[in-house]
Each structure stands twice: as C-alpha cells, then as structure tokens.
Amino acid sequence: MKARTFRRHVRESLKSLARNGWMTFASVSAVTVTLLLVGVFFVIMMNLNKVASTIEEDVEIRVHVDVAANDKDKAVLERQIGEIAGIKSVKYSPKEKELNSLIDSLGEEGEAFKLFEQDNPLNDVFVVKTKNPTDTMYAAKKIERLNYVATVKYGQGKVEQLFSFIEISRNVGLILIVGLLFTAMFLISNTIKITIMARRREIEIMRLVGATNGFIRWPFFLEGLWLGILGSIIPIAVVSSAYYYAYDFLNEKLKDHFIKLLEFNPFVYQLSAILIIMGAAIGIWGSLMSVRKFLKV
Questions:
Q1: Domains in the chain: how many in total?
Q2: Are 168 and 281 members of one domain?
Q3: Alpha-carbon distance 63 to 3, whole Å?
C-alpha cells in the first residue's frame, strides 16, 4: 500500500469518528467498561496467582528418619528419595538442628525444650521439594514405602484442599476474563454495525466505482483500532492509580506476612500494554466482523 493511500485511510477513519460522535462515544464506552472490569479482574487474578505460587513453593515433604538408621542407611535413603520422579531437592536436617528450630519458633516457651539437648527425642529429617508442587502427594506416597522412613508429613488433607482451591480460582478467573472480552466484542461489533449500516450507501457507491474490498475495509479497520485504543485509556488510568494506592496500603499491612503483591513497576506497565492490545484487538475484530456482511455482494 502506498503511503499516500494509507494517509487517506487514516484521515477517513478519524473523520468518521468525528462525524459519528454518539456512535463513537457508545463504542468507546463499551470498550472502556469492559476493559475496566477486565483490568480489575486481571489485577486480582495475577496477585492471587502470585500468592498461590508462593504458597505452592513453600509446600514441602518432611521425611522423619527411623532412629535405628545409621549414617550409611541415611545416605542410601537420601539417594533413593532423589531418584523418585519429580523430586527437585533433598536436604538433610539433623535432629540437633530440628530441636534448635523448634526452640526458636516457640520463643520464650521454647526455653523449656533446651533440657532435651542432651537426650534429643526428635528424628533426623530429610526436607524434600518436588519440581511441580502438585506432585507432592505422589512423591510422599512413594517415600513412605522406603526403608528407614518413620513418618512422612506434608500437610496431608490441607495441601489437597489448597491445590484444589488454587486451581478452581484460576479457572474461574480465566473464564470471567474470557467472558468479558467476548461480551465487549459483541457490544462493539453491534455498535459499529449500526454506524456502518448508516454508511451502507457510501460502501455501495465505492463498490460501484471499482473500489476493492481491501480499500473499503481499511478505514473501518483503523476506525476500530482507534476506538479500542481510546477505550483503553480510562481503564489504564483508573486501574494504575488504584493499584498504586492499594499497593502502598496493603504492602504496609502485609510486610510481616509471607504474602507479597506484585511490584507496581513493571506490573502496571505490563498491564497497560495488555489492555491497549486487548482494546485494539476488540475494536479491530468488531469493525471487521461488522463490515464483512456489506462486502458480500
């Protein structure tokens, strides 16, 4: 396409937006409302996903070694655990370290446990992590069958519920976002269709004088692009501002907890780019789907 022709298409698309003010407003509003909802859901889901990933990474299997095991038996057990499919790491924690960790975790109440330093009743422990957190249950069952394993603990019951909740939350969030996007495409498609119907005579004349489908389609393509980009400006401004204040407020409240929100930078810039791309894609798709039926002669 020649540069002069492209400039002509750009001018025509901008003129069309100005001529059809109310239709432009309706289309931009449809995109704005939808992207605002998508942006909010996206922020919530991405932060929930980060929290879920953090929790998943903290899931571990604690293998308590039988007190009858000697150093050779422990070495064999460590090797056997490491050979199980899906195991990421195996770390040995002697019972002395376990007792110190227990005392430290209990604070002042833990001082009483120092009496056990001479006759430690705890077991040596292998701390095991899997490559995929959802493989924890499978690995734990395999480890339980090995020799010199006293007990295997990984939060049985609670871990399964946690993974189930995380999976359901992710799926529900994805379905909601996809549903909102399709709703936006439907709304903008119908809104633009009304605009195009009002201009169908213009399209027919262009066809009669020999204009190609591509020549006719380009202004509408660009018009949809502008509508999508315009519709993404307000959602980006609102979501970015809200997240800026929410991030400062919640980070202060959660600083003593393991939960951490996504950093404002670069998350907000990534989110802005996604919303602009989504807006442009919705606008282009809506325009092309609407103008297509008028090009079928």
A1: 2
A2: yes
A3: 70
